[in-house]
Amino acid sequence: MLRRQARLRREYIYRKSIEDRERTILEKKQKLKNALDDNNQIPTDLQKDAVDLQKTLDWDDKGADGLTTHIDDEYKWAGVEDPKIMVTTSRDPSSKLKQFAKEMKLIFPNSQRINRGNYEIKQIIEACRANDVTDLVILHEHRGVPDGLVVCHLPYGPTAYFTLSNVIMRHDIPDVGTMSEAYPHLIFNKLTTRLGRRVMNILKYLFPVPKEESKRVMTFANEDDFISYRHHVYKKSEEGKDIELSEVGPRFEMQLYQIILGTIDTKDSADVEWVTHSEVSNESNTSVDLTGIISIQRDIEEIKQNLEGGLKKIDLENATKDLVKSSDLEVIVTTIVKNLFKEFTSSIETKIDKKVSEVIEEMQEKIDALSIENENLREKAEVAMKSLSATKKELHQNERLTREAITSSNYNEQYSRKNNIRVINFPWRERQDLRADFISKVKRDMNVELEERDVVAIHRIPSDKLGPKPLIVRLFSSDVKRRVMREKKNLQDHVRFYDDISKRNIELMKRLNETEWFSDVWYFNCGVYGRISDGLQLKFNIFDDIFLRLRQRK
To answer: Which residues cross the membrane (predicted)?
Structure first.
């Protein structure tokens, strides 16, 4: 599943890169064609490629309504398969948001509501993809009031973000009608621009194709970039001439503020297709707000009227006859400024000293609190270190005891097998008397006389290899075993005798052989031995450090 998703994602990104390259070439051709048709100067960025582009213009026709875009891939199954919608909320939703989510589930046919819980967005997206969900609708709130709607198209986007306002739910609408479950007819008003058509596609493909006789109608009407949503059912009058509309709710206004070319879990890395508060419709109000300018003009007129009765030059001359000279005025002003500056300096110094004292006192309190906290942390660290030391000591003791127990267990197991022989390729037949056949085989091939009491037990053991299953033979004593093992070289018919070695000793012998430091490795009398090239012979335990033993030579 993960490989398939990764492959489909790579294919989608590859198609999108080709589409972007073709769109760039088409835009350059269109600019060049417009410049040639209007007899204008060719744009600077096109002068280098103008000749090559002009050659291809003769072969271009009007064709379809433009290049195929990512929308063709995103909504290629729209109308063929019914959409499958999943509705959820932000974390810790209020009761009002939960109720709103239930009503939104009733709006979308074939939809399901999932409780958000502690799930992350990425987990929800992966679950939706695994269950072939086409769109994920996420509702947000602010202080218990629904204020956000996110529509994420799956599996690879786009994702549209809307703000919600004036949300009125079903139980708040007077004389609310009965909710129909029929597939609704959709009405889109004033969504005629390129962005408007994009928004219309995102909303339209949330609903399956309705039947002609469906009495359910949903309206998305754009006015000044606010999309008003209304939900009605209608019925014809008894005469069949009039139609009665009944609102079933809910109702709200939507405003688009972002579209990204990806799913919501890839918001940080996905390309942004559109993000502003620009107009969604070409019929939105584009007039300039002139109220501020009109107000300024009105204030200017009032100022002019007030100045008409003001002082004139002759009035000013008469009034200034008794004023002081400029030199005296300079002395007075200088004295006043100096006094004001002294007072200001003194006031500033006082305030600064007071503020510094407050800051020092506050910082000292914080330092004291940090010192106390640091002392508490140090005491806790000491307690933790003591506990850790005791735990380590106990762990080392347990490890030592465990190794001793395993070593003793391995020795006891090997000692119990001391008189055992493992026999390979011993012939098998129906109703076989293994004891008699074994005694006969030893006497015939090895010339060793055994009595029935010398063979204490004999049986076959399971094996995954082809051929006869191996035998385990338990002999009466070590002397009997030594007499048999001394003559094992005389065995015939591919039959082989081996010591019955425990699993841990076999692994130890394998480790010794893998080091390539030993010329011989063998088992003898419940022990494993190794000999290096200079003749040094050592006995090894299952937990021995082989390199350390060789370096110490003991």
So the answer is: none
